[in-house]
Q: What sequence folds into this?
């Protein structure tokens, strides 16, 4: 019995120190242009889903699906989210594809979580991904307007789609422009 317990402890110790060695010796890649393994993807995605389900407070969206709120949501989306999550005219931008985990392209696949969970994710963001927390820059009313917008993203009326259309004749700027001159040196 003693030998058995010792075996278990030794195995756990070897596994833990092996993992520690892999991380500390730089053998685990953190590159955003390298897709994670299926195991990492599965573990991370189900952990984020479980945490969101557990922590998002049960609350009803106070923002109705009316034209004024959808337009307000579209403007917020255009200013804060479209660069990563895409637009009807450009559902998957090269910038949006520069992330792992990949940025969900909402005009190809609408978010399918309950509204209280979308609210929670927009408010708090998702650590170790590109998804920022918006609670410091947007108020609750604005976040609910975004939630209403996302719930209707596949059935937006023409007046709202017009807000998201690129200006006539303008080339769509999908990603932040790369700096053309070397940045100023900091000393
Ligand atoms: C810098 C890029 C970036 C910006 C800007 C951004 N997001 Fe995200 N967002 C992401 C990434 C990356 C994920 C995926 C994270 C993951 O899979 O764990 C994500 C995930 C989400 C999700 C969860 C979707 C799902 O189905 O799991 C929602 C909802 C969301 N974002 C809404 C927004 C809203 C609303 C805005 C604007 C206020 C916004 N995001 C701005 C990168 C961004």
A:
């Amino acid at each position: 019995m003693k030998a058995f317990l010792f075996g278990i402890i030794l195995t756990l110790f070897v596994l833990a120190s092996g993992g520690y060695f892999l991380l500390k010796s730089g053998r685990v890649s953190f590159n955003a242009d390298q897709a994670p393994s299926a195991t990492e993807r599965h573990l991370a995605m189900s952990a984020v889903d479980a945490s969101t389900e557990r922590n998002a407070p049960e609350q009803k969206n106070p923002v109705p699906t009316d034209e004024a709120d959808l337009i307000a949501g579209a403007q917020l989306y255009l200013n804060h989210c479209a660069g990563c999550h895409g637009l009807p005219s450009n559902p998957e931008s090269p910038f949006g594809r520069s992330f792992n985990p990949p940025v969900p392209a909402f005009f190809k696949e609408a978010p399918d979580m309950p509204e209280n969970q979308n609210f929670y994710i927009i408010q708090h963001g998702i650590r170790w991904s590109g998804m920022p927390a918006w609670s410091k820059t947007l108020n609750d009313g604005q976040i609910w307007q975004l939630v209403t917008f996302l719930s209707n993203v596949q059935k937006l009326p023409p007046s709202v789609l017009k807000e998201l259309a690129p200006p006539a004749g303008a080339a769509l700027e999908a990603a932040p422009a790369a700096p053309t001159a070397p940045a100023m040196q900091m000393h």
In short: The pocket of heme C is lined by residues 48, 80-81, 83-85, 99, 101, 103-104, 111, 113, 118, 121-122, 126, 129-132, 134, 146 (CB under 6 Å). Residues 67-164 form a domain with the Cytochrome Bc1 Complex; Chain D, domain 2 fold (CATH 1.10.760.10). The two ends are 64 Å apart (CA to CA).
